[in-house]
Amino acid sequence: MENLLNCVDEVMMQLNDTSAEKEYLTEILKDLKENEENLRKSKEAMQNDLTSLEKQVKRQNEEQGEKSVVTPKEKEIHLQVERAKQHRQDAGLELEKYVTDMQQCQEQLSKLSVDRENICDKNSTQLEKIKYDIDLYTHITGIRWQYDCEADDIKGYISKHGFLKPFTLNSRKNSGFFVANYLWDLMEES
């Protein structure tokens, strides 16, 4: 009986663990999507800045009539354009990394969902078997357990053939062997 109750507790813990994992992965996925959106916006802004800088350089070149002498301001603008291109390339690589991470998280989330469904199906079958076994033991022995007692107490009553025999035992003071024999003796008396 105790083994069956331990099995029920273990099944419930597994269900709670997979639920927590799913919530954690969902939170990570949400964060990755937010990061991806921020990077996309940043990339668009850099693209716009780069385009305007390129237009400015082109306009200045046209105004100066393709002079062979490059002014310090033009050098600065060229450097800004190059830095902006490099920054855009770095942001693109970072965006690709986030997209890859997000895809991996989505795959892991779907795998965990499938695993959770399998565990739930398996556990529901086990729970039905455990409930059947407990009902069978209750019917055969006539023992009715009282579950609203202290953790160390074993309480209940035996109801057979019109007789009612209550019992209260302490699992710390009494061995499992004593408890089993005591309950068998009570069942024989009724």
Automatic annotation (TrEMBL):
GO CC terms in record: Ndc80 complex; nucleus
Signal peptide range: none
Disordered: annotated segments: 55-74
Major localization listed first in the record, in broad terms: nucleus
Keyword NAD annotated: no
Location relative to the cell: Nucleus; Chromosome, Centromere, Kinetochore
InterPro entries: Ndc80_Spc24
Keywords associated with the record: Cell cycle, Cell division, Centromere, Chromosome, Coiled coil, Kinetochore, Mitosis, Nucleus
GO biological process: cell division; chromosome segregation
Top-level taxon in the UniProt lineage: Eukaryota
Single GO term (MF): microtubule binding
Keyword Translocase: no
Described function: Acts as a component of the essential kinetochore-associated NDC80 complex, which is required for chromosome segregation and spindle checkpoint activity. Required for kinetochore integrity and the organization of stable microtubule binding sites in the outer plate of the kinetochore. The NDC80 complex synergistically enhances the affinity of the SKA1 complex for microtubules and may allow the NDC80 complex to track depolymerizing microtubules.
UniProt record similarity statement: Belongs to the SPC24 family.
Oligomeric and partner information: Component of the NDC80 complex.
Protein name, entry field: Kinetochore protein Spc24
Source species: Octopus vulgaris (Common octopus)
Phylogenetic placement of the source organism: Eukaryota, Metazoa, Spiralia, Lophotrochozoa, Mollusca
